[in-house]
Amino acid sequence: MRIAIIALTKNASKLANEIGQKLKGDVYVKEKYAVSGNYAIEGDFVEFVHKIFSKYEGLVFVMATGIVVRAIAGVVKDKFTDPAVVVVDEKGRFAISLLSGHVGGANRLALEVASAIGAQPVITTATDVEGVISLDVIAKDYGYQIENIEDLKKVSAALVNGENVRFVFDEDVEEIPLLKDYVKNDDDGEVDAFVYVTDKEIKKLLEKPYVILRPKNIVIGLGCKKGIAFEDLRTFVSETFKNLNLSLKSIKSIATIDIKKEEKGIHQLAEFLKVPVVFYTKEDLKKVENKFPISDFVFHTVGVGSVARPSAYLSSDGGKEIAYLKKDGITLAIYKSRKKD
């Protein structure tokens, strides 16, 4: 986490430097209190804060909370984009998680600051106070995407209030130890809210609040003819995922051979899916091609007997094949990433 520590007074500047040294952050102070390596705060303070607000993942202000609230008021957006904001009094007694406690990481930053200077961390988010899991922290830690986010507050409130929240997992999804104590086997009719941890599309049966924690655990391997159109790729992939009842949002990456680096359609598909493309050399694919059927046509075209399957296999760390299909010059291999040990 890239951190800035900001102070305005002489004593606060000393404390800011102590925090900056221990947490390896950039320190901003008034020029007259600056020491070697510090950045000078020049001009209007609110304008200064607005300039650096989105440049850091964490901001630690050593000053009164009221000053900070007024300074950040004009640039705060939402919990999913705002940086972590922590406030420390200039005596270093308290480290207060002020903004973006969960997703932004302010709660953890407050704990780190408190540990560094011997302060009392102050955390007020309900899940932490009640000792309940936070779904957005789990999503952040495991790289999951939260879907139906409009119900997140309702589901979190149900957890905090001790209501019956049912967790529904795919069998092969990565185990989340923190959720172990929350998994129950109650009937749907008695449940107050649902949390799905799945790469499958969900057909909601009950009018209960729910969120989906969507793992990025699927790799698609692609082989295709030269000049393949983006629309043909998008349609084939979308139809296949719909038929398999899988979510496109669980796609982690596209994998193929490096001679396809200039294929515009593949890059457009990656942009559409918001995932990276992983390119493998012919030599990479040859190392595992004996695991799959060989095509003489593909071998004479690209120098290796198969592209889609070996690419997906490598990119999924030796994962499980879900589907392998061909259509109109496209070969598609869908693999689920190997579950972590």
TrEMBL record:
Please give one Pfam family short name: CbiG_N
Q: Name one GO molecular function term.
A: lyase activity
Q: Which residues form the Cobalamin synthesis G N-terminal domain?
A: 48-128
**Which segments constitute the Cobalamin biosynthesis central region domain?**
133-215
Q: What InterPro entries does the database record attribute to this sequence?
A: CbiG_hydrolase, CbiG_mid, CbiG_N, CobE/GbiG_C, CobE/GbiG_C_sf, GbiG_N_sf
Q: Does the keyword Hydrolase apply?
A: yes
Q: Does the keyword Lyase apply?
A: yes
Q: What class of enzyme is it?
A: hydrolase
The EC number of this protein is 3.7.1.12
Question: Which Gene Ontology BP terms does the record give?
Answer: cobalamin biosynthetic process
Q: Please list the residue ranges annotated as the CobE/GbiG C-terminal domain.
A: 218-334
Q: Which UniProt keywords apply?
A: Hydrolase, Lyase
- The superkingdom listed in its UniProt entry is Bacteria
Supply the PANTHER family for this chain: COBALT-PRECORRIN-5A HYDROLASE (PTHR37477)
Q: What NCBIfam families does UniProt report for this protein, alphabetically?
A: PRK05788.1-4 (NF004466)
| Name of protein | Cobalt-precorrin 5A acetaldehyde-lyase CbiG
Q: Which gene encodes it?
A: cbiG
